[in-house]
Amino acid sequence: MRAVLAIAATVWFFGASFGLLARSSGLGIVAPLVMSATTFAGSAQFAVASILGTSGGAAAAIAAAVLLNARYVPISISVASLFHGPRLRRLAEGQLIVDESWAISSRGDGRFDRRLLIGAGLVLYAAWLTGTAVGVAGGEALGDPKDLGLDGAFPALFLALLVRQLVGRRARLAALLGAGIAFALTPFTPAGTPIVAASAACLLGLRLGARARREP
Amino acid sequence: MTVWLVVAVVGAATIVFKASGPLLLGRRRLPELVVGPVAVLAPVLLAALVVTQTVGGDNELVLDARLAGVGAGAVAIAARAPLPAVVIVAAAATALTRLVA
Question: Does A152 touch chain B (CB under 8 A)?
Answer without folding.
Answer: yes
